[in-house]
Amino acid sequence: MPECIICYKDSNEETIEHIVPRSLGNIHYILPKGLVCQICNQRFSKYEHAVLNSPEWLQERKKFGVVKNTISNEMTACREVDYTRFLLKVLYESIYFSKNWCMKEYNFENIRNELNGYGNLKYTLFNTKGLSTKKSIPGLIDRWRLKRNGVQLNYCFREDKIYFEMIYGSIVNVITTSIV
Ligand SMILES: [Zn+2]
Prior knowledge:
Helix content: 25-40%
Distance between the termini: 30 Å
Number of domains: 1
Strand content: 15-25%
Radius of gyration: 15 Å
Low-confidence stretches: none
Number of helices: 6
Mean pLDDT: 92
Bound molecules: zinc ion
Structural class: alpha+beta
Number of strands: 7
Largest sheet: 5 strands, antiparallel
């Protein structure tokens, strides 16, 4: 049985994990079956739901035609903990899938722990401006496909930190945390 890359427990092989949520139009950028267990997958769905149904994201999703109406009963500002874990999930899974060598060279345990719900990660979140020096995490084809849906995932390492940038349309988020 395969092991979940988040909680290290045995994983249900039928679970498909979208690295970038399907509700942003992504159908190709996914992890092979079984790499994320159903329990972790369900936990991540809650973070995604909170972020994607916040006013800012709903408005942007409407521009890309992946949602019809920006008016939702659940339309509330997203809690920072959900926002952070949503970004960290995309960071962890995209690095695992597209830049796996980073997993061997740096220490992603603190990020993995946070994704398991321990909640003591030290990080900084920026949503004012993006990174000036950066590289794409997804390779050429995935990058192109995601960009059609308005999504860009970038990273860089500086000193003992990883900087992760997720762009969706006009929304820019950068999260940084230690990887030593
Ligand atoms: Zn798991």
